[in-house]
Predict the 3D structure of the following.
Amino acid sequence: MNHEDLLALLGKMTLKEKVGQLVQLDGGCFGAGDMSTGPREKLGVTQEDVDVCGSVLNVLGAEEVRRIQDTYLERSRLKIPLVFMADVIYGYQTCYPIPLGLGATWDPDLIRDDYRLIAGEAVADGCMVTFSPPVDVVRDARWGRCLEMPGEDPYLSSRFATAMVEGFHGDGAPERSIACCVKHFAGYGAPEAGREYNTVDMSEWRFRNEYLPPYKAAVDAGCELVMTSFNTVEGIPATANKWLMDDVLRGEWGFDGPVITDYAAVAELIGHGVAANAREATRLAMNATVDIDMKTPCYAHELEGLVADGEVSMEQVDAACLRVLELKNKLGLFENPYRTCSPERRVEVTCSPERLASARKTCGEALVLLKNEGDVLPLDAGEDGPRVALIGPYANSRDIIGMWAIHADKSRSVTLADAFEEVLGPERFGWAKGCETLDDYSELGDFGKYVGITSGVDDGPSADELETEALALAAAADVVVMALGEHMLQSGEGGARTDITLPAPQKRLLARVRELGKPVVLVLFNGRPLALTDVLDDCDAVLEAWFPGTAGGRAVADVLFGDVNPSGRLTVSFPHNVGQEPLYYAQFSTGRPAKGSAHSGRFVSRYMDAPNEALFPFGYGLSYHTARYENLCVGTGSLRAGEKLRVSVDVTNESQVAGIEVVQLYIHDVAASRVRPMLELRDFARVELAASETRTVEFEIGEDQLRFWTPEHAWASEPGSFEVFVGPNSRDLLAGSFELI
């Protein structure tokens, strides 16, 4: 359908039909026969509202999509099809590592390819728009939604935002591409105290320098929709924030697609205290150019009256409706309202060998080796290798996919026990649960039933019996692998926590196993940085597995037994103590820096009872090889606008094991009109090194990489001195300098 045809269609629509296109309802409202009555009444919408609704939330399954679409089109006067949208964050039924793990690959090209496979699987089962990628910058481990984001750095997050959008789009063929919605715009990752849905309050310069860039990268890459965040921005909730949505997103960035709210966010303007009722909330959201009201009756019931009273213009409604129609037209729904959903194609692509292999490879790159004292890893899988005891709540659990993999097929998950038995056979391997994940499951509430998790202690063995079995197994083994971590529901939306250490029963079990004097390898399953200070001495090696997804068991085994040399590097800082949060590498020096200040040791910017620095810093990760960095060269030592400055470093593999180094380049603007972070990531390279190989790794720095949001409210660089740092992480760096002239 061309643009003139869309305008003609818009001209035929009644106001009620136009408003309907701006309403998104969930599948309960589209149940067969009387099945929809209860959900409609609970939400407060009528059958007439359903009959003109524009989009559907989180209904997938090729047969169900076709049923709902057919029933809807039979009732539709103008035969405008529904668009089906869903949360497909890091996999559909084939589940990849959580995005915090995807970020740890430092491999945007790989993730682009993965997201192409994710798109093909999702569209076959009826998904047309995914609420992804989430690219909020996360700097507080207390926030539960850390797991959905690539990490704490705006540059790296921007690289992944671009790759994810491009991956979802694929080659543009309908059977291999999906429209995507970047979220949560904006600043959602910085709630006060890390508490979910809490206030966000920061200066505009920090907002623009550190939090907006990944969203803009997604917009520049061509994402079709933008989702508003739940938080405030300069005291105004994002869903009602005209400056953010209209001035910045549409005006400055040129975004012309639909803006959709997060779940029930229009109605929540009342809770925020900026609207007295649903009518005011609707007016504020519409005036902020928010097009689609997800899962509230506000637009459906209030918008017509606001137009009649002149508080919202017909032009505003037409513009919003046209953006929705243009999305549907781009997806080809007027020609094929089912797009490419097909039960036959679903069988062909779902958890296909290609996808399972891809998930396994990516998970292998996402795993981060945090400790390897005495080179206890890799374990010997040969006939003369050690007998291994695998112990912990995650030893044989399929709940390794993370809380937001709501469409994943858990039956496909490969557990650690499955993978270990494949490698070692039953003669050299045994597993035991050892303890419950938590002492008290009550903090999880009843959310588990919504994501298919059964939480809590059943009528099985007692705590003493579980521990006795595990200790006996460990005593008979040569090496103990402890599979521990957060409960899957302790992270994710609504998972804010003040205690980010390992749960108490797992720490007790780990300490008891350590007393046996056996080498102990800790494998961590979690959706956020954890404070590990109190358990590090109880293990010889630590492997961060995140929630690794469908192929997680095999990928972890690949690394533990040396088939894969770990190359993952942290994209979030791990604290010594929760009291350090928010914690991130790109700190400011302050006028009294902890290092180098003329003031006495007490009167500087530091903690009395903990270091300022992270336990495991941004960019950190070990491998089975060791590398030496030397001979940093900073070109001519000066840079002019329009030119490039060459930076090079020699990296040598000092071992006989081939591996991958993630070489990282950071910049520090020494003196500027605004304070600048002591370090800012500006480039990186994944470098494959053969045994004993030396490679010269080169970067180019341009003037555009030195820009920031200035006091003049513009992106610009300023002449002066800059430091450049290169190394394997944000702590262990070679230093050089140059001048911008």
